[in-house]
Design brief:
Strand content: 35-45%
Helix content: 10-25%
Number of helices: 5
Distance between the termini: 97 Å
Length: about 450
């Protein structure tokens, strides 16, 4: 009797195992799937923050996770984590290296990670995942050294810098201002050296900026840019709105760009055009002009930006305009560029070679072209009557790119001209000053280049 029971139990076990194997081989739901260990093959640490090891399983709860640490040339290991009966499908384990381990003169260790799940149909054959990852210990911050820079930066203006940033595990290098604006930097001459233009936003009362270099372990170095700050006062204007203006250009633009125009009063139309539409148009401009090539700079030459021959300036850069109607304040805005006028439909010239990155209508700016000249420098040409270029075109210096006009919010035929550095409007007159370009850009790059090349001698 006992033998029969043992025999039947043995047969039951065999059937159960065969059924499990059959189901795993026939149905995806029952197939053996091991947990996923979602960590990089190499991880860098400065020992200030725990390492994060993520384990995930899309089909079954995770049962056990074991993590051990060893030196690359030593099989002796230390158990850092041994979690059992977890019963979760997604976990993050915080791993702290033991003090005795990282006090040794070893730059990297090996983490051995093993995880298995509790798949019911694989109870005789656990679903196990294994992974080895290298842990690199790096407690040294990158070295940053300024080689040359502009002497000063003025409010609404630009400046340049050439510097060196070294670290065997270097990850990020950029320049950040006190307002959080980030300027990308470009490789210069050879590996480990960088150059950049920065700009002081005219709407910011103060300016300071630092080079920030961060390695893969999270070590950060900061080096302040020591420019002499030159404050500059810009024009403030009070403009009385007329019924002719409100019923003309404003009404037309409001109707063109807002479907609710029919329900707007004169004031609402103006506020929509001067605030809502203007903001959207400027955000598009800033987005386009915030990009920068990552290619290495070796030589950079720049001609003066003189887009309109025999022209007169008819509106200033950074003019803070306050609008009123019959003595009542209505709205305000900044005029971020200069307006130049000559004859109607006058040819607009690009004095520098460029790539056309925008060529179409843009709300209050009308028919516009944006050109990229390299090194983070963009120029804007607005209120055009026609364009001779298309997006994607590459043009040579002295090319006629458009003709002046009255598109957008222009009342008379003119060109709205702007120069932007990585999305920041700068005073165009600087870029029409040969001495400023030479002192602030050309000499800075030349000096930096000589220092870099002389280091090889």
């Amino acid at each position: 009797m006992i033998k029969n029971k043992l025999f039947r139990f043995f047969i039951f076990l065999i059937v159960l195992v065969l059924l499990s194997v059959f189901l795993n081989s026939q149905f995806a739901f029952f197939k053996r799937t091991a947990p996923q260990i979602l960590v990089s093959d190499t991880i860098y640490t400065n020992l200030k923050t725990p390492l994060i090891v993520r384990v995930k399983d899309n089909s079954s709860p995770i049962k056990n996770v074991k993590i051990t640490l060893r030196k690359d040339n030593d099989n002796t290991s230390i158990v850092l984590a041994d979690e059992k009966n977890i019963d979760k499908t997604d976990i993050n384990l915080q791993i702290t290296l033991p003090k005795l381990a990282y006090q040794e003169k070893t730059k990297f260790y090996i983490l051995d990670i093993q995880a298995n799940n509790s798949n019911l149909f694989n109870f005789l054959m656990p679903n196990t995942a294994k992974k080895q990852m290298v842990v690199v210990i790096d407690e040294v911050s990158p070295a940053v050294k300024i080689l040359s820079s502009s002497y000063q930066i003025e409010k609404g203006g630009a400046a340049s810098v050439v510097f060196q940033a070294n670290d065997e595990n270097l990850d990020k290098v950029f320049i950040q201002t006190n307002t959080g604006k980030i300027f990308k930097v470009q490789p210069f001459i050879k590996e480990g050296y960088y150059a950049a233009l920065v700009a002081w936003n005219v709407k910011d009362e103060n300016f300071n900026a630092s080079i920030i270099a961060q390695d893969k372990a999270g070590n950060i170095s900061k080096q302040a840019l020591k420019y002499f700050l030159l404050n500059r006062n810009y024009r403030v204007s009070t403009i009385n709105l007329t019924d002719t203006f409100l019923n003309g250009k404003i009404k037309t633009l409001s109707k063109q760009y807002d479907q609710n125009d029919s329900n707007f009063t004169h004031f609402e139309n103006f506020k929509f055009v001067n605030e809502t539409l203007r903001l959207a148009n400027e955000e598009l401009i800033y987005k386009i002009t915030s990009q920068i090539d990552e290619e290495k700079i070796e030589n950079f030459d720049l001609n003066l930006f003189l887009p309109l021959k025999n022209s007169q300036k008819v509106a200033d850069f950074a003019d803070h305009r306050f609008y009123s109607y019959n003595g009542q304040a209505v709205s305000s805005s900044y005029h971020m560029g200069i307006d130049l006028a000559s004859t109607a439909k006058a040819p607009i010239i690009s004095n520098n070679k460029a790539k056309v990155v925008f060529a179409e209508e843009n709300g209050i700016y009308g028919l516009s072209a944006i050109l990229y000249h390299g090194f983070g420098i963009y120029t804007l040409y607005s209120h055009c009557s026609s364009l001779n270029v298309s997006q994607g075109d590459k043009i040579e210096a002295q090319s006629v790119i458009a003709k002046t006009g009255v598109s957008g919010l222009a009342l008379g035929d003119h060109l709205h001209f702007g120069v932007l550095i990585q999305g920041i409007e700068t005073r165009p007159e600087q870029w029409q000053d040969r001495k400023w370009i030479e002192n602030s850009i050309t000499k800075v790059l030349d000096k930096g280049k000589k220092i870099i090349l002389n280091e090889d001698k």
